[in-house]
Amino acid sequence: MSIKENLRKVKGSIPKEVTLVAVSKTKPNDAILEAYHAGQRVFGENKIQEMTQKWEALPKDIEWHMIGHVQRNKVKYMAEYVSLIHGVDSFRLLTEIDKQAKKHNRVIPCLLQIHIAEEETKFGLNQAELEEIINSDVFKNLEKIKIVGLMGMATFTHDLDQVRKEFRFLKSIYDDLRQKLPEISVLSMGMSGDYNIAIEEGSTMVRIGSSIFGARNYS
Prior knowledge:
alpha/beta, 8-stranded parallel β-sheet, 10 helices, 8 strands
């Protein structure tokens, strides 16, 4: 099936109010353009350099989401254009994004990444660290960052009950956070293999790559 057909199928399987981030990491510009011409405008990348090259070359009405782990020294390369940073997992990263956003006089929307998986490899804050950030004076003084919600990645497992449990846990943290930050509206959870469960558990944004573009290129 073509990218256009895959996209149509995926869009048909998710509710209208759920945002689809087409994960285009490692994919060439012509594949992204095929999805673009089929109506997709939100794309996710996990390497800032690759995303910046694509931003420079591709239509300017594309929304670029940084969905990978963010190194602080690379924030400056995307501060001018990034639409949403999914994986904010530390105070120091927040302050760096704020600093770089000031240089471009823009407010950068961010999601705080919560660690929900039973895997050591996944990044993210625990509940105590989330509370510490939200309640801190430093957080209150950030002028050029807008926290719009939370992101999390479930354990990579065939145990769908465990995946559901982790998504449900993240949704409960999100609901608690909305008591303190009523303006948040994004819960980014769910990828190609588990997005249906994520949506059932309250996801408002899914990150889907291989179901749209085919298997990933690891070269």
